[in-house]
Structure formats: structure tokens, C-alpha cells
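Researcher: We're teaching a course module on how sequence relates to structure. For the next exercise, students receive a sequence and then see the predicted structure as C-alpha cells, so they can try to spot secondary structure elements on their own. Here is the exercise chain.
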Amino acid sequence: MSSRLDGKVALVTGAGSGIGQAAAMRFAAEGASVAVLDIRPELAALTAMMIDKEHEGRALALAADVGRAIEIQTAVDLAADEFGRLDIVYNNAGTMDLGAVEDTSEDGWDRTFAVHVKGTFLTTRAALQHLGGGGSIINQGSVAALVGVQYLAAYSAAKGAIVALTRQMAVDLAPRGIRVNAICPGTCRTPMTEPLFRTRGGGDVEAGIAATVPKYPLGRLGRHVGRRDDGPVRNEQ
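Model: And here is the predicted structure for the students to work with:
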């Protein structure tokens, strides 16, 4: 790995597993100190331990619900106090409520937007005072923000909102030297997506994956860089 992030500090939400864990590990491999935030403290601690063991990097495990203002503000402030500042904020935390509009409960809809959209808003707001005169904010979108995906009404709507919010944040924060971008990955195999595969496969996860793969020209799902196979990744976004 390069050292292009030496001396930088990254905060990753939903970093206890899946895409967030992979991102936290990669930031550390590139030389950054990483604040690993997850709603599940034991998973945040696991990722921090992996960073310390595999990359001899500085990692801080934090627990917070990104949809709750007091919790996320406290966690972000702790990260800034520990490392002195923030340079990178990766708003990755997510959840997935399956169902078309008629199948989606009001609670499921509200929770999806609370984590994805409100969580991105609250985390960014809490972090801005620590970014100083520059930095980078990365918001986790999805291919579901750009095209219709069956059974994902709430998730697709929330990811679409994140893409719109990213455009607005980029305009508002550019004068402060803060870059804001969204990434919109395709499907990755994680525990969060396995219920979707199970639904697509009529109860069979592998059948659901087989039905999903042809949607992608590369002929495979997203996976961790460096993996030698497309087997299960025991993580969650």
C-alpha cells in the first residue's frame, strides 16, 4: 500500500462490517488514523482490533446510532479529541428494509431514512467543525439510487435522497475547501444483502445470487479487493 494518507484522520460510519469495514481497513493501510463507528460496539471494536493487528495503525472504536443527534455528536467529538482533527468522513452506515411500496411499513420507511439520510446529515453536521479549512466527505449511495431495483422501495428512495444531498453539500461546502462526493456501488454480498438474495431466490440465497449476477456486465458481484473468490463475506454495509 502507498502512504498517501499518512497523517490524515478518517471517520467511517457503519465500519463494524462489510463495505464500511473494508473502507476503514483501506484507509488504515494507506496510513490514516481511523475512527471506527458502528451502532454495535463489539463490531466497532473488532474492526479497530483488525486495523491495529494488520496495519499497525491507530484506530478508535466508537458506538453510536447515526440517526440520533446527541449520540453522533458525542462520538464525532470523541474522535476529534483523540486524533486532534478530522480530514475524511465516510457516511457509510446503512440498513435495508425489503419490500415494494405496498409491502413497506411506516416504521421500516422511517428507519431507513433515519439511518441513510438523517444519519448522513447529522454525521456531516457534527464533523464540520472538526474539518477545518478542508477535507473530504464521502457519502454512500447505491446503484439503487440511479435505477429501479425490485423490492427496495425505501432503500432506493433513501439512496436517491443521499445523491441529491451530496450535490447540495458539494455546492455549500466548496467555498470552505471541502470536497463532497457520493459513490454508488452495485450489489455486494454481505449479511445485509443476503435477505434480498433470499427473496430473489425463493428462499435460496445462492439462487438469488445466481439471478443477480447476470445484471452486471462483469459477471460477478462486488467484493473486497484482494479476495480470491466470490464466496461469502461475513460483513455488512
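Model: If you want an answer key for the exercise: The first strand starts at residue 9 and ends at 13. The chain is about 45% helix and 15% strand.
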